[in-house]
């Protein structure tokens, strides 16, 4: 059961209330080894939760050119690999927890502020239909979320049921809005919520053989009336507060399970 948790978050505004709540401290960029030729923007914070869990939290940092947070799949994937290969030191991670905001479907029970713990992740903007080949399924890239190595899996559903959060799928694409084609893929892949990082992080976790647990708070409604960006900006602050509450509850749940099994 988890002892060293890696928390990955795209935006600093999403992360700062949680960083304060967990009393994490910023660490200088770890002396890079193989990545030394890159200037990586990721920001690292460390600390602990209770006495039995150590926490490392990374945010995607800012784009050097545009000054905004590095949202989206490119930095999500790079940050995940960077954290797993370069930051952990000798204290190996037991679980990746990806916390962030998302768009939610009213038709799947979402309202502003709902928390979703997805059971699976997939991409909704990778259309690679080449008849007679598995490229379409490759594009969808469906990954199952889990919290541990096989044989020692805390069911994602038991966490969300005990905390009364939504389940279903997170689907990921590199746009805040969506096209009609994205919508078809979101429906086909059982999307309860859509974001811009989840499936990318889950894929890297799969490659690394580590569990992926998503915690997604709804800032805007995908099948609602208003443009995503309007609702997003209006609700980002409240959503960050909600993440600040949800993440410690989940850590507590994991910690209790570990103690029960010890
Ligand atoms: N307008 C924002 C842009 C943030 S992009 C700004 O000015 O900073 C949106 C971020 O929130 C991404 O990290 C994404 O994962 C998440 N997100 C929230 N609502 C979303 C939606 N409807 N679709 C996709 N991603 C969403």
What is the count of DSSP helices, taking H or I runs of 4+ residues? 7
Instruction: Write down the secondary-structure element order.
Output: EHEEEHEEEHEHEHEHEH
Are there runs of 5+ residues with pLDDT below 50, and where? none
Q: What is the helical fraction, as a range of percent? A: 25-40%
Principal-axis shape equals globular
Average pLDDT, to the nearest integer? 92
Distance between the termini: 9 Å
- Major β-sheet profile: 11 strands, mixed
Q: What Rg, in angstroms, do the CA atoms define?
A: 17 Å
| Beta content | 15-25%
Which ions, cofactors or small ligands are bound in this entry?
Answer: S-adenosyl-L-homocysteine
Q: What is the β-strand count?
A: 11
- The class by helix and strand makeup works out as alpha/beta
What does this protein look like?
The protein has 262 residues and is an alpha/beta fold. The chain is built from seven helices and eleven strands. Helix 5 links the parallel strand 9 (169-172) and strand 10. The longest helix is centred in the last third of the chain and has 34 residues, at 228-261. The site of S-adenosyl-L-homocysteine has 21 residues, from strand 5, strand 10, strand 11 and helix 7.
